[in-house]
Amino acid sequence: MATKSAHQRIYFALKVHQHRLSLGFSFAELAERTQLSISYLNEIEKGKKFPKPDKIEQLARVFNTSIELLLSETLPKNLEPIEELLKSNFLNELPLDIFGFDLMRLVELIADAPTRVGAFIATLVDLSRGYAGNEAHFYFAALRSYLEINYNFFEDIETAALKLASEYKIEIQSLHNSSILEKILKEKFNYKIIEDGLSSYPDLNILRAVTNPRTRTLLLNKNLTTAQRAFQFGKELGFCELQLKERAYTSSLLRVKNFDEVLNHFKAGYFSAALLMPQKEFIADIKAFFLQKLWNNGDSILGLLQKYNATPEMFFQRMTNILPQFLNLEQVFFLRFLHTHGSNQYEINKELHLSRKHHPQSTASSEHYCRRWLAIKSLENLEQNKSGGYFIIAAQLSAYNNTNDIYLCITIARRDNETRSSSVTIGILIEPDTVSKINFLDDPEISSREVSTTCERCAISDCLERQSAPTFIIKKEKRRALREALNQLMDS
């Protein structure tokens, strides 16, 4: 019999499992009746083996059913959630392998409790459908989880970047005009680079670059900053050095085909950051920054951005690679906010939480994020031009309402264009050993504020920045009063 697909093996495994249980047979009893070994039957139910026609006939006879029904891709009513799952593309979308989870293990879980597990996975299917069409797509959520469980540090990519830098004797200062990276792309990988390659295509002007992997042609947006230009070159080198085949043509992912594409674009971007901000030197600079006695209005951060010719997002993302691994600062989060000028809406469109889920995080609803957050306050100040410019670096000690958690939050906000601004924030949980690693925590220039997640969930009563009533708190209080009244009634 021809090799069967994973889906066909799953269907058959569930059918055999269901028939065996409905008849009350143990593996030993079924083995005796079918003359098949216990181990072979076990592998069938795990989806690892698909029997030959004569063995299928034996199973059908014992189960008192037809071969056609046993082979059909129709499951009993109690397995409808599983059938919907298998007919969807969800199993193909699940990047099980990167989490060390074998597809056949999923079959075992489904077989052990098909209705409950099936309903749970069907819920995931519905959620993933809801994500499709925005940046919180299921693939990106899966990627974020993958980064978080790996502390956003990947030794193999670090080693590959270090090897290329050593091979071409790349130094920090030589990266400022990115000519060394351009030279490597041309000489080692036969790239053709078109400096103003998108002007003839007005609809593509929102992109930083477009690549044709087949002809190895890289078309650049003429408006790229030197930092953006260097990052694009580094990213192309990442695709080549890491031999990443599955990729999109555009610098940012517009329409995602599969998870490998998302993962490969992350790996190429990580390679670029590791190349532009070499591990050893970056660690030394961050340690020196934290050992300063004073915050100094973020002048040191500005100096490091200039040294590495990095965008704020590149710089903070690189910090998330380094802090847990080399400074033992594991409780870290990263957030990126977008804000359209003139609106009252602030959108989190990128986040990362290391060690655990931290309080400042995105919500799926239309709630109002806390305006006491430094990330939002900086964007408000930028729009009102209180800073007198287009760039703000600020720090805050943020104490989360009704918790013992206090974070050092460092935010960089900037005007992206005439209509939009963005801010990136890195937050570090203040723990007993954090104080010995970050010397400027007591600097009076760093403001301290009590903050919450959203106005709707905030119990701070005297908040002047409140944008909405604390609806969740009100509902919670009503439920508490209801429970107390019921207890009084039952005790009377």
Q: How would you describe this structure to a colleague?
A:
The chain is of the alpha+beta class and 492 residues long. It has three domains: 126 residues, 434 Repressor (Amino-terminal Domain); 128 residues, Arc Repressor Mutant, subunit A, CATH 1.10.10.2910; 173 residues, no CATH class. The strands form two sheets. The chain has a six-stranded mixed β-sheet, with helices on both faces. α1 runs parallel beside α8 and α8 crosses α9. The longest helix is centred in the C-terminal third of the chain and has 21 residues. The chain is globular.
Quantity of strands, as a count: 9
Domains, number: 3
Class by SSE composition: alpha+beta
How widely separated are the two ends? 73 Å
The number of distinct helices, counting runs of at least 4 residues, comes to: 20
Unreliable stretches (pLDDT < 50, length at least 5) are: 132-136
Major β-sheet strand ordering = 5-4-8-7-6-9
Q: Over the alpha carbons, how many angstroms does the gyration radius reach? A: 28 Å
- Shape field: globular
Assembly state here? single chain
Supply the key terms:
9 strands, 434 Repressor (Amino-terminal Domain), single chain, alpha+beta, Arc Repressor Mutant, subunit A, about 500 residues
Give the helix/strand layout.
Blueprint: H1 6-22, H2 27-34, H3 38-45, H4 53-63, H5 67-71, H6 80-87, H7 90-93, H8 103-112, H9 114-131, H10 138-149, H11 155-167, H12 179-189, E1 192-194, E2 209-212, E3 217-220, H13 226-241, H14 259-276, H15 279-290, H16 299-308, H17 312-326, E4 332-340, E5 346-354, H18 374-383, E6 391-400, E7 406-415, E8 420-429, H19 434-437, E9 447-451, H20 471-491
Parallel strand pairs: 1-3, 6-9
Antiparallel strand pairs: 2-3, 4-5, 4-8, 6-7, 7-8
